[in-house]
Specification:
It is a single chain. With 152 residues, the protein is α/β, with parallel strands linked by helices. The protein has one domain: Rossmann fold, CATH 3.40.50.2300. The chain has a 5-stranded parallel sheet, sandwiched between helices. α4 links the parallel β3 and β4. α3 runs parallel beside α4. The longest helix is centred in the last third of the chain and has 28 residues.
């Protein structure tokens, strides 16, 4: 039990982040995220990303709106159908207000214009990590109180 609790505590301190973008553009993001001690996976196509999202849970999904192999808005729509509410960050070099409007209609948590500053990304990661810790803390409190095992 102690080992599971230690793993649980370690996992609650890490974010698992998916970056859906051209590898040439995403490599620096991945390095920065790993430097912050989080997990980061890069996929560069709509199809690969959708497959991975079906089979894995991510704390944050960062999506380039103008993918070379697919459309970021359509990917977000598919994610919402599969997983419901997730932390999705839209990123692009395109400054079109129409693209931003479409992304925000899909309830992205952040819309970032590239290039963006490292401290902006770190702030977002810290915010999501704080929410994750609160969720884990609440789950742990419920577990310890034995409430999860109640039946009605």
């Amino acid at each position: 039990m102690k080992k599971n609790k230690e793993n649980y505590l370690i996992e609650s301190q890490l974010l698992d982040i998916l970056i859906v973008d051209r590898k040439s553009e995403a490599n620096h993001l991945q390095l920065y995220i790993k430097k912050l001690m989080h997990k980061a996976t890069i996929l560069d196509s709509y199809k690969e990303a959708l497959h991975e999202i079906r089979n894995r849970d991510f704390d944050l999904i960062m999506i380039e709106m103008n993918l070379s192999k697919g459309n970021g808005i359509d990917l977000i729509k598919q994610i919402r159908k599969l997983k419901g509410i997730l932390n999705v960050l839209a990123m692009t070099r395109d400054t079109s207000r129409e693209l931003e409007r479409k992304a925000r209609e899909q309830r992205v948590i952040y819309y970032m214009i590239k290039p963006f500053e490292a401290n902006e990304l770190q702030s977002i990661i810290n915010h999501i990590l704080k929410k994750k810790r609160q969720t884990h803390s609440l789950s742990e409190s419920i577990d310890e109180a034995g409430i999860k095992n109640l039946k009605f």
